[in-house]
Design goal:
alpha/beta, six-stranded parallel sheet
């Protein structure tokens, strides 16, 4: 049976099954009226519905609904769009192919929920293949980290083709929303943001009131395809999948800016370093307050965006500090990718450098790791896929904390959490854990069970379908 948005069609005071059945018949007649006309059955179907109307207490409402279905009024598409496929955008291969992997996992999970899915590949498909979707109806368009849905230039004006495809558009953003500021400012009235950090949701709702809705939606974890290895077969004590970036180069760039921005950035950096639990926007607001600067919303966003490099700089400062602290405490760490050749401690005896890995191969590394280190990209109220993937690989996950992590997991039971202000205490804790394999294995198993029970892509697919259905009924 077709589920109807009650806001469009409140049922009359009668048996709801009779009204729902009538509405379903009207929708089917509207959808297949041309086929019924061609086969000569349309008038028969109309006569049957007219007899049904006589059984309903509000014949005027019933006739009005039938007319809307036959004329394909907006109320018709409010129902019909829910029967259409979901269109997924696969972005070009960045982040070691992680985003394409996420789209493919989401597609599989949606199909497992009996949802039809189409995938448009931004890199390999042409504009003309996307053009065939224009004026089509979909249940939703979904992209992950999509800085711009497919667009073309016409007379030096960038035209977003998604504006010509009728359906809600969902962008799963994995960074701070300020990184897609131009997209948010020019978003259509059907644009939704799915964010993995609740601070980001508050930020968007405050500063980008044109966005239709923001919803908490963290990426999911993926079960490895290879069998789990025994704990005794885990030959890596600690692994870190993230890359290295030299924060000193960013500092050098900042110091070359105009005096006003240089002084503002300097205070911003100091605020973040001394308050590492602050979200970036909170630290920036504190910086403006220190200088007595009051800005309108537009100027605040412009300036915050201009100093976007500051949180990234501090992130890599703390990343380097964490790794260096562990190495100097004689703790061996395995890292991956060419970027680590540029680390000032690249030749440290305890830093084991490996080649760059495609995203899919990181699961094997985590499976063979006793501890999988995660360092948040300054998400102070978020949950990321690297944490969940480590758990699903039955590795004990060690991460700097966030409000969301503290709510979702229990430090020392199914995860290992630390604060950036307490890095110096990490080596002692890690050495104790590595010396107690039974406790470490128990933490890994508990994390695995927690992630398996509620953080797979199948769970996210069901949540996503609920989000789409809920917003379709508004």
């Amino acid at each position: 049976m077709i589920l109807l948005p009650n806001s469009f069609y409140p049922p009359p005071q009668t048996d709801s099954n009779s009204w729902d059945g009538y509405c379903t018949d009207c929708y089917i007649l509207g959808k297949y009226q041309q086929e019924l006309l061609s086969a000569g059955y349309f008038n028969i179907a109309i006569n049957v519905l007219m007899e049904s109307i006589l059984q309903l207490p509000d014949s005027k409402q019933a006739v009005d609904f039938l007319e809307k279905m036959l004329s394909h009024a907006p109320e018709y598409y409010a129902i019909d769009d829910q029967t259409q496929p979901i269109l997924l955008y696969r972005t070009p291969d960045i982040c070691y192919n992680a985003l394409s992997f996420f789209i493919d996992e989401l597609a599989k999970a949606l199909r497992a929920c009996h949802q039809r899915v189409l995938i448009f590949d931004n890199e390999s498909s042409s504009f003309f293949s996307l053009n065939s979707f224009v004026e089509c109806h979909f249940k939703a368009i979904i992209g992950i980290q999509t800085y711009s849905f497919p667009s073309i230039l016409i007379n030096n004006t960038r035209i977003n083709l998604s504006n010509f495809i009728t359906c809600p558009q969902f962008n799963i953003c994995l960074d701070h929303p300020i990184t897609i500021k131009p997209i948010l400012e020019n978003a259509s009235n059907n644009y939704y943001l799915l964010l993995h950090d609740r601070n980001y949701i508050s930020f968007v709702k405050k500063h980008f009131t044109n966005i239709k809705e923001c919803v908490y939606f963290p990426p999911a974890g993926t079960l490895p395809q290879t069998p789990h290895c025994l704990w005794t077969q885990k030959n890596f004590d600690i692994t870190f999948i993230g890359s290295f970036s030299d924060y000193r180069k960013t500092l050098s760039y900042i110091w070359r800016q105009e005096r006003f921005y240089r002084h503002l950035a300097s205070r911003y950096i100091s605020t973040l370093c001394h308050n590492p639990d602050f979200p970036a926007e909170t630290a920036f607001q504190q910086t403006l307050k220190y200088y007595g600067i009051n800005l309108c919303n537009e100027d605040f966003l412009n300036l915050f965006n201009m100093l976007e490099a500051v949180p990234s700089c501090i992130l890599f400062y703390f990343r380097e500090k964490i790794i260096r602290t562990l190495l100097d405490a004689n703790i061996e760490i395995h890292v991956y990718g060419d970027s680590w050749r540029n680390a000032p401690f690249a030749e440290h005896r305890n830093l084991i450098r490996h080649n760059t890995l495609p995203f899919q191969e990181t699961f094997y590394v985590m499976q063979h790791s006793k501890i999988s280190l995660n360092i948040m990209s300054w998400h102070k109220d978020g949950l990321t896929e690297r944490i969940l993937n480590g758990m699903l690989c039955q590795s004990a996950v060690l991460s700097d904390t966030s409000t969301r992590l503290e709510e979702e997991f229990v430090d020392g039971k199914d995860i290992l959490l630390f604060r950036l202000s307490q890095i110096s205490s990490l080596p002692i804790r890690i050495k104790k854990l590595l010396a107690d394999p039974e406790q470490l294995q128990e933490i890994a198993e508990n994390g695995y069970k927690k992630a398996l029970g509620k953080h797979l892509w199948t769970h996210r697919a069901m949540q996503l379908l609920d989000i789409i259905d809920a917003n379709a009924a508004i």
